[in-house]
Design goal:
By secondary structure, this protein is mostly helical. It is built from eleven helices and three strands. It has helices spanning about 5-20, 30-45, 50-75, 80-90, 95-110, 115-120, 135-180, 195-215, 220-230, 240-250, 280-310, and strands at about 255-260, 265-270, 275. A three-stranded mixed β-sheet has the order 2-1-3.
Length: about 325
């Protein structure tokens, strides 16, 4: 069995596993990686970019190396290689947990339980929930679903197609490090610089593919492309911008605007200004679009890996 089929079968099994099982409540591999990264940080932390770059290299490089060793150990068995790819895919994607959290908040809003929705929002994103009304919470959820479709599903599949199991683990490690130390707080402004820049680079191909697939799979393909072209470049994140703009156009809603993180107010550009304000019902629509994008991404990535491996064989 060729490497292209191994990835296709394994990644499909991993996505099905995520759909059926979601994330484990205890002992999740990403949580284990996070604790290891925290231990490395306790030893290395200095208010200096160089020490932060070393932290990034050790943690992300360690994940890639682990994936390489595991893949090499099973390379003579097609069945074991598929199982390993499936397990790695399940470990690094988070589409089902993303959908469950978004839907739980949507149900709370539909029931008029704004306080309950505020209490759940930190499970999904880092916004200050007390600063948001029901419509603001719904907008935050749709934006988080859009961004995390790229970060938690499509980006991992892209790098899995490029580099197999090491690519899957490496991408998730980089994305996790960015969430841990890549923000611009006083402690991490310098130390987390390398993690943030590496995440920007690693997330670029997945974010563009996500934006393309959202346009194809959404209700308004032309609106998605129009919003992407007009507004994505004004977003402060080079990767979240295309994804959120494309989702906004595809869903016909308006995203962006004023938001609050950790007590810090940000005024972000409006994405798809011609769209209507986000309503609670748009959460379910965003989740359905996210799921379609994830499965389409699997097809694209599996086909691309098979073609690439066929040319090099």
């Amino acid at each position: 069995m060729g490497a292209g089929r191994v990835f296709a079968y394994g990644a499909a099994a991993g996505l099905i596993g995520d759909l059926l099982l979601g994330d484990p409540r205890r002992g999740h591999p990403v949580a284990v990686f996070g604790r290891a990264a925290e231990a490395v940080e306790r030893v290395l932390w200095r208010d200096h970019r160089g020490w932060g770059a070393l932290h990034t290299a050790l943690c992300a490089g360690g994940a890639v190396a682990l994936g390489g060793v595991a893949a090499r150990a099973v390379r003579d068995s097609a069945v074991a290689s598929v199982v390993l790819t499936g397990a790695a895919t399940w470990a690094v994607v988070g589409g089902t947990s993303l959908a469950r959290e978004a839907q739980a908040i949507g149900r709370a809003l539909e029931a008029g339980d704004v306080e309950g929705a505020r209490a759940r929002l930190p499970h999904l994103c880092g916004r200050d929930p007390q600063a948001l009304d029901a419509d603001g919470i719904a907008r935050a959820v749709v934006e988080s679903v859009a961004e995390n479709t790229s970060d938690a599903v499509v980006g991992a599949l892209v790098w899995g197609a490029v580099a197999g199991v090491p690519g899957l683990l490496g991408f998730r490690a980089v994305n996790t490090l960015d969430a841990m130390v890549g923000h611009k707080s006083a402690r991490y402004r310098r130390y987390g610089w390398a993690s943030a820049r590496l995440d920007d680079l690693a997330g670029r191909p997945g974010s563009r593919l996500t934006a393309v697939l959202a346009a194809l799979a959404g209700d308004d393909p032309r609106g998605a492309v129009r919003a992407w072209r007009a507004d994505a470049g004004r977003h402060p994140s080079p990767n979240a911008g295309p994804v959120e703009a494309s989702f906004a156009g595809a869903l016909g809603v308006r995203l962006g605007g004023t938001l609050s993180y950790g007590g810090r107010v940000e005024h972000r550009p409006v994405l798809n200004g011609a769209g209507r304000p986000v309503a609670t019902r748009d959460i379910a629509r965003a989740v359905r679009l996210s799921r379609r994008v994830g499965w389409l991404a699997l097809g694209v990535c599996a086909a691309a890996r098979r073609i690439a491996k066929g040319r090099t064989s």
